């Protein structure tokens, strides 16, 4: 495993999607900002404090299931909304309605802009497969499968635990470790012999809570120290930095 920059006992790699494998984290951040800014403007008027697509995104919504992200950010502003139903229309000011508004914007942006995978990450996943390690994608997104297909990398992974699978199985999302634990279980590998690859602070917390054999933080936005403080064993800017040994 030295050539992959991982401890010798690792037998499975569990990859987050947005920000680790694909350049979709910025798309999600932009959709959250558009959603929350419109809501806050209508609620508070011209003096509203806008959603910060870096700080607020990283701290309150990145890596979380959609509804949890809505609750988390609104709580940071002292705002409570009715939960609503999963079929609430995007214009309804409920937790589920705002989540559906954000999802519609993400799908629109992905359709308009397409999906690009990080070349370094794809190179690394190919190396992981060549080394005979098991591979899974673990994402809070309900659109994970479509994004993998659009990026042309769906064939690289044996297991997918995403927002849809988590809902079916009743798995709490990150920062809880349950989705990563489910991926390791489905691959037939113990958590202690599995590596987690994440760019979100909530994902770091999940990796630490699940007692995985290695937690790799991917720093795309200059938050290396925060990733380490939340449990990263090693931090890289792109996964191919791990090839040939630990950075």
UniProtKB/TrEMBL annotation:
Keywords: Carbohydrate metabolism, Hydrolase, Isomerase, Magnesium, Metal-binding, Phosphoprotein. InterPro entries: B-phosphoglucomutase_hydrolase, Beta-PGM-like, HAD-like_sf, HAD-SF_hydro_IA, HAD_sf, PGP-like_dom2. Residues 79-98 are annotated as: Disordered. Residues 83-94 have a biased composition (Basic and acidic residues). It comes from the Bacteria. Belongs to the HAD-like hydrolase superfamily. CbbY/CbbZ/Gph/YieH family. Its cofactor is Mg(2+). It catalyses: beta-D-glucose 1-phosphate = beta-D-glucose 6-phosphate. GO terms for molecular function: hydrolase activity. Its EC number is 5.4.2.6. This is Beta-phosphoglucomutase.
